C-alpha cells in the first residue's frame, strides 16, 4: 500500500486538473488538520501566495468556540485580507476534502466577508 495514493490525493489531483488560479481570479485553497484550518489565496501563474489566514496564526482572535466556528472566522479573516489586497473574485479549491463541515463553514465565512466564488 505504500506506493498507492490515498483517496484524498487522487481527488485533489482531479480537482487541480480542472481549476487553476490566475491573477484575475486567484485560487482559494483550504487545508484542514485536526487542530486547525488554513486558507491561502494563490496565483498559480506566478506561483505566489497572495494572502493567507489560519486558526493558529497570531492575528487570529476567535480561539473559543467549536472548530466550525473557528472556520467561519478564518473565512472572514482571509476575505478581509483579500479585499484589502484588492482581490474580490476567487476560485474555491477544497483540496480533496468533502464540501461539508469545516470546509463549508470556511467557504460560507469567506462569502460573508465579501469574496465571490
Automatic annotation (TrEMBL):
GO terms for biological process: translation. It comes from Mucilaginibacter hurinus. The keyword ATP-binding does not apply. InterPro entries: Ribosomal_L18 (IPR057268), Ribosomal_uL18_bac-type (IPR004389), Ribosomal_uL18_bac/plant/anim (IPR005484). The gene is rplR. This is Large ribosomal subunit protein uL18. This is one of the proteins that bind and probably mediate the attachment of the 5S RNA into the large ribosomal subunit, where it forms part of the central protuberance. GO terms for molecular function: 5S rRNA binding; structural constituent of ribosome. Belongs to the universal ribosomal protein uL18 family. Pfam families: Ribosomal_L18p. Part of the 50S ribosomal subunit; part of the 5S rRNA/L5/L18/L25 subcomplex. Contacts the 5S and 23S rRNAs. The keyword Ribosomal protein applies. Gene3D superfamilies: 3.30.420.100. It comes from the Bacteria. GO terms for cellular component: cytosolic large ribosomal subunit. Keywords: Ribonucleoprotein, Ribosomal protein, RNA-binding, rRNA-binding.
